């Protein structure tokens, strides 16, 4: 009678060991399969080098945008241990607001003015998008997440799913189903041609802006008193509060920073994809989450590099594997599943892996 | 103190204004038309009422020093003093909050809201009057709503034909709403300690606490409704004049829902058995008396009951949050479609010719295809289950969500196999011994009625299996696993097997539901299987009460049935349910009809919070958040 639990336990342990072996074998098989596919199909197609380079540049641009969104996931996760499922929608709202700001600027003729005017107007548009996102992000925290801070982990997740749907369909009701198309001003609609490689100005601007924003965030977190408070709260919330850190304020600021980055990303994605609509935040949000997981969620540099890697894989992957580009979303989600199976702490390690259990 | 309560009142007014602006933006007033302004004022009054009521309880809450602690709150031991102070709270309330103060507060809040709304609609009216288009998108909705609010036609706004008195009316109405709300709070102040009407209601519903007369009335209600529905079906009988089909559908939904309550109200034993048998008979006759439209809605409801019961095994019993549940639904539907529709992919027809079967005729009938669809879905469940065995909580949710999306993308893009976005057409209908029931019953049973009947029988079967499973050894293993995986393993639960069984059984039920859905739709397309099916299934078990089969039926009736009745406001459906999901999580995470175990099944064992008594949790502030209390709490600890 006493032996049966022991036996079962041993069986469970055996099960775990064999499971580990199984996942390892599976991982090896997948790697071999991918390498085989890339060498036999992707490289055999014989695309010129310039094709790969411009694909890679595209990937970097997309990766930069994903990085901005991924930082929002990582920041919130680092502090609250919750996935802000509605973060993609926060980004989308930045994009929608940016669209109206752009329309306003175009109606005023600012977009045809001399270049300083255009630059200032573009910056203004981005700031307006960021401001809208910050407003939504903070409201979200206050209404949907703060009351649930001591609830079990899945309760805020469900609340976040609700909030995500709520934001999407509110935008649908307010602004309609049809996509709103960003019209680029003449100043940034061209591009740079280096040999066979074409670099659109918007792409370059997006990449540079996202790098600058990431540097700014890194500076805030590493060098300012606020950043130190954020890191302290992420490390140990109750001890931080004993040391005189206003935990609530830090959480609000975290949401503000993440939402501001997402708003900027939304505006830039609007310029990059040329359209925004009510559900245009959902898939990029999932991708950015994938990027955050790829880099190790809770890890800020990890999110940045994870996003760049994801962008590259998404841009190069379909051609390298010789499959239609419609499957690029499949590649991203498959990546997510594979990472979570084989390296749940991400490529760069999860900073707070022990506490989240 | 007076200044502080004044700022509070103004803040209440601002929040009400924000909420009403949202309603204006999504186009509610334009839809209501004529009486838009009074309706909006009524909504504002309700909001003020809730807010003032809560505020008048709050001071005493702060007096007991109970902080809104964010991280290590142990409600368990903080409830003691709270409960003990109930008596003094009432006294304090009556002495400190006189009616006049409340009315002043209500007046201030109402005035703020009214003034802001008047100013904004004034600005819009002025802009329109001067020919300024507000925004290319907004100006379609906003003028219509502004006009409805001011009580004129949009044309009159454009001609600047709006008198000042109309704005004054707005201000007065909202101020009146505030005063009315304050008066209502004052009038009901003796009842203020009962801050949880929802809790009381469910306590009544979940146990026989009613008087015997009330109990018998509750038991009789579904039968009366059923009889009325049957009578409505007789030729020449109409209900309330218009829109008979919808009224009858609504009555059917209410009858089914009240049947569940009747079951709960009846005494366990012979009485309950009798009620159950009679109800079963009544429900089974429904497909015969309803018309095609009502049957199709009820069929969908019960298909989702099956989905919910299956997902409940994964989420409610085993505690694994699965957001990609639609994948198994799709697998079931597509398996049946492959087997029974004349379209077959080049692959499949090639295979069939190889086997010497003509690819033109349907391969298998409904009943023969059923085990195949269930098995395919179960295999899909195990295939999803194996890689996610080690994951928990939110990671699992995201991975399953990704899995669902992958399946959908494959359906969309694997044109050779699934016909892509053009879908699979002309799926054959379930037959009974080679005959269609429509012919057998001489037209008494419509084709959708047959589907409804099948859905009813299948979901009863699924419910039986699910309940028995939950009470079996496996069910207890699931429960142990969701409480704490490590402890469960230590006590002899084989985790791998238990988890995979949960995934496989849940997927099997989804496969059954998917097959029936394909038969109901006749033509299926990849967009039938979007993420929203997963979200709907999850939402219905959460709204109904996670882990409780009766709650799932109720959730399906509310989430899949009611929107069909409210066809006119269908566009607000998702927004409403999304908001409801958030509010539900905050106010009542156990659902309307919580399971008998009365535990939050989503709970992670490590965290405190939800293991306290459900009654105490309802005392927590809901949507209105008092963050200040949190700061006070942590500040207080600092001084120690």
Automatic annotation (TrEMBL), chain A:
GO terms for cellular component: plasma membrane. CDD domains: TM_PBP1_LivH_like. The lineage of its organism: Bacteria, Bacillati, Chloroflexota, Caldilineae, Caldilineales. It is found in: Cell membrane. It comes from Caldilineaceae bacterium SB0661_bin_32. One of its GO terms (molecular function) is L-isoleucine transmembrane transporter activity. This is Branched-chain amino acid ABC transporter permease. Its main location: membrane. PANTHER family: BRANCHED-CHAIN AMINO ACID TRANSPORT SYSTEM PERMEASE PROTEIN LIVH, HIGH-AFFINITY BRANCHED-CHAIN AMINO ACID TRANSPORT SYSTEM PERMEASE PROTEIN LIVH. GO terms for biological process: D-alanine transmembrane transport; L-alanine transport; L-isoleucine import across plasma membrane. Pfam families: BPD_transp_2. Belongs to the binding-protein-dependent transport system permease family. LivHM subfamily. The chain crosses the membrane at residues 21-39, 59-83, 90-109, 115-136, 157-178, 198-221, 247-269, 289-310, 330-349. It is a multi-pass membrane protein. Keywords: Amino-acid transport, Cell inner membrane, Cell membrane, Membrane, Transmembrane, Transmembrane helix, Transport.
TrEMBL record, chain B:
One of its GO terms (cellular component) is plasma membrane. It comes from Caldilineaceae bacterium SB0661_bin_32. It comes from the Bacteria. The chain crosses the membrane at residues 12-30, 36-52, 107-128, 167-192, 213-234, 246-266, 273-290, 296-318, 325-344, 364-386, 393-411, 450-469, 500-518, 538-559, 571-587. The keyword Cell membrane applies. It is found in: Cell membrane. Residues 604-618 have a biased composition (Acidic residues). InterPro entries: ABC_transp_permease, LivM-like. This is Leucine/isoleucine/valine transporter permease subunit.
